[in-house]
Design a protein that fits this description.
The protein has eleven helices and five strands. The longest helix has 22 residues. β4 and β5 form a beta hairpin. The protein is an alpha/beta fold. Strands 2-1-3-4-5 form a five-stranded mixed beta sheet. It folds into two domains: 30 residues, no CATH class; 194 residues, Beta-carbonic Anhydrase, Chain A (3-Layer(aba) Sandwich), CATH 3.40.1050. Bound molecules: cobalt (II) ion (CO).
């Protein structure tokens, strides 16, 4: 007896073909997605399903806690292929509330090898700790999910791939979204970057939406510098 997933696959392929007889022939020729999705590997956040997109419409990269590291050749190669060959016009970095990776980074919970990967999220926490430490635990985790997305949007925008695309005059926007497991809704974190000269300011404005302990009068100049993208 075939595995349940293979049985499911047969049924899906048949139903898809019945609905749109040219579907597989068309997609087999080439993919032409307008969107790239960089999300968490979490099984509850499937890019296509929650955005109502068919196969062929979104190019996807996922890892633990949707992190884009400057030296991660896997993520950078995927972004490069998406931007230079597929010419996607939008890259969405999508975090999600209730992310176990973000929670582990926030709480210092050991999970194993992945702790080393999650150091990147822990670094985000440290950079913005004055905006996090005074919050209630649940709020800390939710806000760190958002801040992690904002940081990764900055990392994508500052990557050589995206900088080169903008220098060529290519139309390309980088967005930051967060997904709610409880209601299935995506929230736009208003950190969209589509030109190199706006990156630092958009990042800074997004982070400043989270109040520091002591309110807006609190930040000293050197502390503000600690939180800047450069
Ligand atoms: Co997650």
């Amino acid at each position: 007896m075939p595995h349940r997933l293979l049985t499911n696959n047969r049924a899906w392929a048949a139903a898809t073909h019945a609905r749109d007889p040219g579907f597989f022939t068309r997609l087999a020729q080439q993919q032409n997605p307008r969107y790239m999705w960089i999300g968490c590997a979490d099984s509850r956040v499937p890019a296509n399903e929650i955005t109502g997109l068919d196969p062929g419409e979104v190019f996807v990269h996922r890892n633990v806690a949707n992190v884009v590291v400057h030296s991660d050749l896997n993520a950078l190669s995927t972004i490069q292929f998406a931007v230079e060959h597929l010419k996607v016009e939008h890259i969405f970095v999508v975090g999600h509330y209730g992310c176990a990776g973000v929670r582990a980074a926030m709480r210092g919970i050991r999970v194993g090898l992945a702790d080393n990967w999650l150091r990147h999220v822990h670094d985000v926490r440290l950079r913005h700790r004055k905006r996090l430490d005074h919050l209630q635990p649940q709020e800390q985790e939710d806000i760190l999910c958002e801040m992690n997305v904002i940081e990764q949007v900055g990392n994508v925008a500052l990557s050589t791939v995206v900088q080169d695309a903008w220098a060529r005059g290519q139309t390309l926007s980088v967005h930051g979204w967060v997904y709610g497991l409880r209601d299935g809704l995506l929230k736009d974190l208003q950190v969209t970057m589509d030109r190199p000269d706006m990156v630092v300011q958009v990042f800074s404005d997004a982070i400043k939406r989270y109040p520091r302990q002591g309110g807006p009068t609190a930040p000293a100049a050197d502390e503000a510098h600690d939180e800047s993208l450069y």
